[in-house]
Write a structure and sequence with these properties.
heterotrimer, A alpha/beta, B mainly alpha, C alpha+beta, C: alpha+beta, 3-methyladenine DNA Glycosylase II, Chain A, domain 3, Alpha-Beta Plaits, 2 domains, two-stranded antiparallel ribbon, 11 helices, 9 strands
């Protein structure tokens, strides 16, 4: 049966132009710039200094605290400098710049294409190695994965959901990964199941990827406890809470974590990264990234070293098209617009989207005509028109009491609004202001 | 890249619906009813509709440009819809100057005083219509008879609406079964062969437009269905109790401005609730008030008043009837 | 019937009558009743209540009132009121279009806070003014306006009450309340960029590059250098104007001073 989440949702155009393009390995660039904060949580602490030689896979920065992640060198070479450099928002953050030399790998890393099916690691070892390998959620939010592998005390996980939805239009990196590294990914799933001590895993895939569903089903005959669940195409199905609802029918209570329902969600890319970390001893130093756009010469999927400049990625896909008006890091619904192409690829980069000038700016906003479209499509059951207006008028108490913190910023409201109002802009403002107010209140 | 690139908050895709498309969708949905009206009332329907649309749009433009000094948004189609709906609520023999006054009240008082599109608490076309109904009761209730006056405008032959005939008859003590001879048959009522406001007559054309709007997702089904259902059930109960002194529910559905009101006037975005549950409350309220006015009030028809009354409750409904949040009522764990 | 209603009303009024400190009324009358919120209370009434209630009022201050009326309030309450110098809002950014080039087009809600949380802004400076006028909106006294040429907010000194609203509104903390001087004169560093010199200069031609020349030249220890940024303490500054000519990037602004003789000659 084909499932989906019941409340709200929109249907933006799919535009998955690079779905048929196999993953190509992007050559190692001359220099890489590796940010020390590529994940949710505290930035990592650098372990190297200017002039040090590093080797691919070497730990160069250590995560600080529970919610943080290790960072490894993605190339072999010498550290040119450790400096504050612009990130995707233009603000400067600490980054390690490495000039690359020969592409040697640290000893113990298995770079052969051999698939290792035999799982020897215990659950505890899997979590430890995931932490050591610096793995974060590769779906976009970049939440450190070891945190999600450790079930909190008093809670019990009974189902693992693997997110192969890729509900963002344009992006195809997860799709290609499922097609080309399906078996590795499934071994990764087995590893996660062992760490979480669950017997059941479901891979949720939207049925606009029938080839991936078919391919995985053919492999899954050998593996127990893992099934594929086709899902109806609807945005934002890849959101954690919506995916749990779609697959299991369970609803994460407002303000609570998904573990309340006994479900844990990991992305397909994360499952593959965990496979590589445990079975091949390889830390997270590269990932698959889609480069696409209407006028891009060759919309492609690349296997890219972390720290590669965005510009060289676009170059490999045929260069920046003449009429490009906007460059987005991520998908068109939740991605972040860049103001420079000289920023590096991070662990959380799932795609680079080049939008033509004609589609890059919004229509001027008109009056709200109270058509209630935003209310009917909000997957969280909120009233975006009200939240947005309250936030615009700085009525923070009302913003809070209307449950702004439930908003996951999926952008469906701004997408659907016939008056082109910047609903999410103001809701986001309200959300961050209210979080500050709540934090201040607690102190 | 030497060109400046745009940076904006997500999302970077925008839907292809805009206010203009939605408004023109309503206009397309109203066209069949307009054609039926032109068929039955002829030249009068064309003149009244034309004057109403032109004056509504002109007033909107003039007020925005010269009084409010804002950029005129007359092309967004909302004044066109108001003009069309106002015309649909008027008899097709109404003198031109009354129509212009109605348009001024609808746009000037009903819409612009509150800040223009999106801010008006009451349906502008209905504000105009009700103003005219209380100010010019004679002209507003002399309904041209269908077909016979196709080529006449101000001097059209007039007749009473079926609702008027029935109300008067029942009040005089004539049983409903005997009154049926004095009004058109139900099939004729369904098609629109009766005296009445120019756009309200043809149930079949209005329903067709309604289905078009629901299919195109311009409106949702909640408000029309809840109003029609409430009227049907309410009048049905009363008819079952006393079929001798009361009209049957099918007659109530097909006569007067109920279809026009339920499908086009009550569903006005600005003046209707935001949630499906709120829409049900709103529609049920309109249904009850309409029937109450028709059966117990002084006027034979009450749809306009019912919608305006319920419009006033919309802010209250929006405040207290909230959508069910995700994770609000947890059925698991 | 009417008598009964009157009786009920009378009794209710008696029962719910609240004895109020008459001084609240008196204090409120002395306050400007602008309800600007500059004092940190929701309005003048609430502030008056706070003044009457608290024993030590030296921390409470109405930034809008002059010292005379504050002294009056102190005498009504019989409490000590701290003496305060009048202050004025100063915009510490001089990033006009001529000084910083535009690097992108912002296309979102017209709000500095939203733009600032999204990215560094159209002109690339992570500390500079975003020019969407949230400070202008916040001002209750019509004292701050956007200059269409410089695309920066400008404060009209004699309208500014120093209520702090614009300071709170600016997401980048560009606006500062500084001591008022004679003839509205002021000297300040019109930059809050804490990046290293090279980076700061790349963003803006008149950025403070943290060279420290001004610190050396100041005789009154009024200038400090921290995080690549110099700061002139308005309390210590004697308006001697020694620092401004030293600045290699013209980041120090002198406002409302007569033109120096030397400069005059050079111009001629």
């Amino acid at each position: 049966m084909i499932l989906t989440f019941p409340k709200g949702g929109v249907h933006p155009p799919d535009n998955k132009l690079s779905a048929g393009s196999p993953i190509q390995v992007l050559p190692v660039p001359g220099t890489v710039t590796i940010p020390l904060s590529q994940h949710l949580g505290a930035p990592a602490e650098p372990l190297v200094k200017k002039g040090d030689s590093v080797i691919t896979g070497q730990l160069i920065a250590k995560g600080c605290g529970f919610i943080s992640a290790n960072i490894h060198s993605s190339v072999t070479g010498t550290v040119a400098r450790i400096d504050r450099l612009p990130d995707s928002s233009g603000y400067r953050r600490l980054m390690v710049v490495i000039n690359t030399g020969k592409d040697d790998w640290q000893e113990g890393i298995d770079t052969s294409p051999r698939i290792i099916k035999n799982i020897t690691a215990t659950g505890g070892e899997i979590i430890k190695k995931t932490l050591a390998a610096g793995i974060v959620g590769l779906g976009g939010a970049a939440f450190p994965s070891h945190v999600k592998l450790s079930v909190p005390k008093g809670k019990k996980a009974d189902i693992l959901i693997i997110n192969g939805v890729e509900c963002e239009p344009c992006l195809t990196s997860d799709h290609r990964l499922m097609l080309e590294k399906g078996e590795e990914m499934i071994i990764g799933i087995q590893l996660i199941m062992k760490a979480l001590d669950v017997k059941k895993a479901v891979i949720g895939i939207e049925n606009n990827k029938p080839d991936a569903i078919k391919h995985l089903n053919s492999i899954l005959k050998e593996y127990e406890g893992v099934t594929v669940q086709p899902l109806k195409v609807k945005y934002p199905q890849g959101a954690e809470k919506q995916l749990i609802k779609a697959v299991t029918g369970r609803e994460v209570p407002s303000g609570k974590l998904p573990i309340e329902t006994g479900a844990v969600v990991h992305n397909v890319g994360t499952a593959f990264a965990i496979y590589e970390a445990i079975q091949k001893n390889k830390p997270l130093i590269e990932r698959v990234i889609t480069v696409t756009g209407k006028n891009v010469a060759n919309p492609s999927n690349f296997l890219v070293r972390i720290g590669t400049p965005v510009a060289s990625l676009i170059e490999a896909a045929g260069g920046v098209p003449e009429d490009t008006g906007k460059v987005v890091n991520g998908g068109p619904m939740m991605g972040k617009a860049l103001n420079s192409l000289d920023i590096p690829v991070t662990k959380g980069t799932s795609g680079i989207l080049l939008i033509p000038e004609s589609e890059s700016s919004r229509r001027p906003a008109e009056n709200c005509i109270r058509c209630a479209r935003c209310v009917s499509i909000c997957p969280m059951g909120l009233e975006p028109y009200l939240l947005s207006a309250a936030s615009e008028n700085k009525k923070w108490e009302m913003v809070e009491s209307e449950h702004v913190l439930d908003c996951m910023e999926c952008g469906s409201c701004s997408y659907i609004c016939p008056s082109a109002r910047p609903l999410l802009d103001y809701i986001r403002l309200g959300k961050s202001t209210v979080s500050h107010i709540i934090r201040a209140r607690k102190q | 890249m030497d060109k400046l690139i745009t940076v904006s908050p997500s999302p970077h895709y925008y839907g292809n619906e805009d206010v203009k498309k939605l408004m023109y969708g309503v206009v397309y949905a109203l066209l069949p009813a307009l054609l039926v009206s032109v068929y039955f009332f002829g030249i009068g329907a064309i003149i009244v509709t034309g004057i109403s649309i032109v004056s509504c749009m002109a007033f909107e433009y003039l007020i925005q440009k010269h009084l409010l000094k804002t950029k005129p948004s007359v092309t967004d189609g909302s004044a066109l819809v108001t003009g069309l709906l106002l015309a649909f609520n008027l008899p097709s023999n109404l003198p031109w100057w009354i129509i212009v006054i109605g348009a001024l009240v609808a746009i000037g008082v009903g819409k612009m005083t509150f800040g223009g599109l999106g801010n008006n608490p009451f349906n502008p076309a209905l504000v105009g219509r009700v103003f005219l109904l209380v100010s010019f009761p004679v002209q507003m209730t002399s309904w041209p008879a269908p077909v016979v006056s196709r080529l006449r405008y101000a001097d059209a032959e007039t007749g009473a609406t079926p609702l008027g005939v029935v109300k008067e008859g029942l009040e005089a003590g004539v049983p409903f079964s005997r009154l049926l001879d004095q009004i058109p048959g139900y099939l004729e009522l369904f098609a629109g062969y009766m005296p009445g406001s120019l756009g309200e007559i043809s149930a079949v054309a209005l329903i067709a437009g309604g289905i078009f709007m629901i299919a195109r997702k311009i409106i949702t089904w909640h408000i029309p269905v809840s109003i029609l259902l409430t009227v049907f059930v309410f009048t049905g109960i009363i008819w079952l109790i006393n079929p001798y002194d009361n009209a049957d529910p099918v007659f109530h559905l097909l006569s007067g401005g109920l279809m026009l009101g339920a499908i086009y006037m009550a569903t006005d975005y600005v003046t209707s609730p935001m949630t499906p549950r709120g829409m049900w409350i709103f529609g049920t309220g309109i249904g009850i008030i309409t029937v109450a006015i028709r059966l117990f009030g002084a006027y034979p028809e009450g749809v306009s008043f019912a919608i305006l009354i319920m419009n006033a409750f919309v802010p209250l409904i929006n405040k207290y009837v909230k959508p069910v949040r995700f994770g609000e009522e947890v059925k698991y764990g | 019937m009417g008598t009964a209603a009157a009786l009920i009303l009378f009794l209710v009024a008696r029962k719910f009558h609240v004895e109020e400190d008459p001084r609240i009324e008196q204090v409120e009358n002395e306050l400007p009743s602008a309800n600007c919120g500059g004092c940190g209370y929701p309005g003048c009434r609430a502030f008056a209540e706070a003044l009457v209630k608290s024993d030590d009022i030296s921390d409470l201050n109405c930034p809008v009132s002059d010292s005379e009326s504050m002294a009056k309030i102190a005498s009504i309450l019989g409490k000590e009121m701290a003496e305060r110098d009048p202050v004025v809002a100063v915009v510490r950014c001089n990033g006009t279009p001529g000084h910083r080039t535009r690097t992108s087009i912002y296309n979102g809600a017209e709000s500095c806070t939203i733009a600032s949380s999204l990215y560094t802004g159209e002109r690339g400076c992570p500390h500079g003014c975003l020019g969407m006028g949230e400070c202008v909106e916040a001002c209750n006294f019509d004292a701050i306006h956007m200059n269409p040429d410089t695309m920066l907010p400008e404060v009209t000194d004699d309208m500014c009450t120093g209520c702090n609203a614009c300071v709170l509104a600016c997401p980048r903390d560009i606006i500062e309340l500084r001591k008022k001087n004679k003839k509205e004169r002021k000297i300040y560093i019109a930059c809050i960029n804490e990046e290293k010199g090279g980076v700061a200069r790349k963003n803006c031609r008149v950025a403070c590059i943290g060279c420290g020349k001004c610190v050396k030249v100041c005789k009154f220890d009024a200038i400090t250098l921290e995080n690549n940024l110099a700061y002139i303490d308005a309390e210590k500054c004697k308006l001697c104007r020694k620092c401004a000519p030293e600045c290699p990037t013209d980041a120090i602004l002198e406002i409302n001073f007569p033109v120096k003789k030397k400069v005059k000659e050079e111009v001629q």
